[in-house]
Amino acid sequence: MQELINRAKELLADNTVARVLGWRAGDLPYDPEPAYFETEDALKDFVYNGFCGANLSKYMIEASKLEGKTLVFLKPCDTYSFNQLLKEHRVDREKAYIIGVGCKGKLDIEKIRKQGVKGIRGISGAEMTDDADVLTIDTIYGEKTCAYQDVMLGRCHVCKGKEHKVYDELIGESRETTDAERFAEVEAIEAMSPQERFAYFKKELSKCIRCNACRNVCPACSCRKCVFDSNKFDSSQKANADSFEEKMFHIIRAFHVAGRCTDCGECSRVCPQGIPLHLFNRKFIKEIDQLYGEYQAGEDTESKAPLTDYTFEDAEPSIIGERG
Amino acid sequence: MSIEAKEEFRPKIVAFCCNWCSYAGADLAGSSRLGYPADVKIIRVPCSCRVNPMFILRAFEKGADGVIMCGCHPGDCHYSTGNYYARRRMTLLFSMLDFIGVENGRTRVEWVSAAEGARFSDTMNDFVEKIRSLGKNVRLEDLRCRS
Fold this sequence. Notes:
Distance between the termini of chain B: 27 Å
Structural class of chain A: alpha/beta
Strand content of chain A: 5-15%
Oligomer: heterodimer
Radius of gyration of chain B: 16 Å
Strand order of the largest sheet of chain A: 2-1-3-4-8
Largest sheet of chain A: 5 strands, mixed
Order of helices and strands of chain B: EHEHEHEH
Number of strands of chain A: 8
Largest interface: A-B, 44 and 39 residues
Number of domains of chain B: 1
CATH topology of chain B: Rossmann fold
Shape of chain B: globular
CATH architecture of chain B: 3-Layer(aba) Sandwich
Number of helices of chain B: 4
Order of helices and strands of chain A: HEEHEHEHEEEEHHHHHHH
Helix content of chain B: 25-40%
Number of domains of chain A: 2
CATH class of chain B: Alpha Beta
Radius of gyration of chain A: 21 Å
Shape of chain A: globular
Distance between the termini of chain A: 51 Å
Largest sheet of chain B: 4 strands, parallel
Helix content of chain A: 25-40%
Number of helices of chain A: 11
C-alpha cells in the first residue's frame, strides 16, 4: 500500500497527473470508499486492501471531463470494465494514467459476519503484501480467524484471471482465485421447474427496495439519462403494487447491459439486500456464449458487441421453448 | 339468487406487427376474408427492430395474456437488417422470461410477409389457441393497471 502512495505522490509532484482516484479509509476497517485525492497530504487517508472491492472505472467517465490526467488504480477485473467504457467512447484513455494493482481476491464483510464474527475492531491479513490465507479479526469478544478463501466475494470465486487488460504500469502481485464453475449458479436455477424458478425470483426480488444502487454502481450502465428516471415509467416510484415491477426493473437493467456486462459483480456486491443480481447478467452471458459464440466484454476494444451484431444463421427465438 | 355467468376465457393478445410486411399481411388476411380472433390487438411498429424489450414486458404488466411479434422474413427487412437485430434481442428476452419462470408459450416471434395473409391468419389462430390453453396470465399483471 505504501508503494502505491509513494508512486501516487511522485506522479502528483511531477504534474503527470492532476488527481488520484483511489480508495479512502472509511470509519470502519472494512468499508473503504472510492475517493479523489488532489494533494500529497490528502493521500494519508489512502488505503488499498482486501476490502477495496469497488470498481473505480465508472468514476473515470466523470474524471475524463476534468482538466488534466487522473491517476486511477485498477484491479485486473476492473480493467475489463475500463476497456468496455473505452470501446463505447465513454472514457478518454488520454486522460487516464492507469496503475494496475495486484489483487488476491476481495473480501465480503457479509460473509465474515455470517461466520458469527461480531464487534469487529480491526482486521489484519488483508493487506496487499499479505499472503491472503488467513484473516485475523480483532473483535470486542476476542480474536477470531477466518480462511481468506471462505470469505471472498462471490465474483472472486469465478475470477476472470490475474492479467490486466489495460494499464500504464503494474504494482503488486495478483493471484487467480477461481475455484468454482462460472455458470454453476445459473445452471442450478435452470434445472428447477418453472414454478420453482418463479418462486425463487419472487422471493429474492421482493427484497428489492429500489435504491438503484445496482444501476448506479454498474460500469456498463453509463447512460446520461436513464429510462428508470423517467416519471412516465411506473418504476420511478418507490412504492410498487405488484411483484412483477421488480422483475421488470431487473430484467430491463440486465438487458440494457447484455453483451456489454463484463461480469464484474459490482451489482451483487453493493446490493444492501443481498440479492444475487449477477445471476441475471450471467444468464445473458451464458446465452450469448451458447447462441452467438463465446464473448467476454472488455477483453478488447475492437470486437463487435453481440447485440449490435448478427449473422444470417442466428437461432430463431423459438429455440428457447424447443430446447426445453 | 345469483346468476352465474358462464363466460368463456377471452385472452388479451398484443401483436407487434412491422409496417412493411406483417401489418400488410394482416391487411391481406382481412381483405381476403380470412378469419382470426378479435382477441388479437395489433400494434403497428415501423420495423420489428423498433420493439423494445420493455414494450413486451409492459404489455404483460398491462394485462396481456400473450405477446407476439411479427416482422419481415429474415433477409426481407425493409431496412435491410432490422429484423436480424430484433431476432437476437427477442431470443435473449425470451430466455430471460423463461429463466424467471414465465411460461415460454406466452411469447412468440413469427415472420410474416405482406403476401402471406393466410399465414398471418393461421399464426394468430394458433397463438390464440395456445394462450387459451395456458389460461389467464396472473403472474405478470400489475394490479394498478387493471381498470
